[in-house]
Amino acid sequence: MPEVVLQDVAKHYGNSIAVENMSLRIGDGELVALLGPSGCGKTTTLRMIGGFVDATSGQITVGGRDVTHLPPNRRNMGFVFQNYALFPHMTAAQNVAFGLEMRGLNKADTERKVREALARVRLGHLADRLPRQMSGGQQQRVALARALVIEPDVLLLDEPLSNLDAALRHEMKIEIRQLQQSLGLTTVFVTHDQDEAMSTADRMVLMYNGKVEQVGPPDEVYGRP
Ligand code: ADP
Ligand code: ADP
Question: What is the complex's ipTM, to 2 decimals?
């Protein structure tokens, strides 16, 4: 998987600065957690990497390719949102199939990939359920399957656990980390939860006020317990 490099990336909204001079290298197969208080610029950073927010300045490359001003559909990234963002009128399988159909993949291959993706998140038996017929954890696993089915170069997770109860959060955290490691996916994980970041990330990026305060493996950033 390619590495993601941010070089002097900034995002301004009028006179207000959401992200300032951000430079960061996310290695091949690495899971980096962006951590910090509400409003510090985590989501804006993730959205710039994903192409949903256009950087004001700086450069973002993926495997050496400049993607700074490319739209999301030309970056080959999988995105999982806090609120799952599933289409409510579509079944689990249809939700997962959507991105493949958009890419014009034929019916037989779409069906096979959808089945594989749902099996990977242990939802093969719920393929025909609608989102409202599934638990929060199941919905989030559909969202994960939808992100993975396109075989993304990079996985972007925006507070993917924060709508789940504590037990599910723990379970999903382990599941996401296992999937990410087994697929060797370069991953950026936004969270405001320090324990979540410490127990999943290879490296943590502490942000404050739009700036990177500290970068390092969890035990370097917080010290060994
Ligand atoms: P976090 O994800 O860490 O909570 P955000 O990236 O959402 O932080 O926001 C960083 C800053 O940018 C905040 O001050 C926020 O109010 C501001 N901001 C985010 N999106 C917009 C927007 N569309 N217009 C204006 N300001 C924004
Ligand atoms: P269509 O629009 O082709 O009639 P649907 O809207 O029911 O089909 O589903 C869209 C796509 O979702 C299908 O082409 C198929 O690839 C996938 N799909 C739907 N249900 C399943 C399922 N149970 N298992 C695997 N894939 C499915």
Answer: 0.72
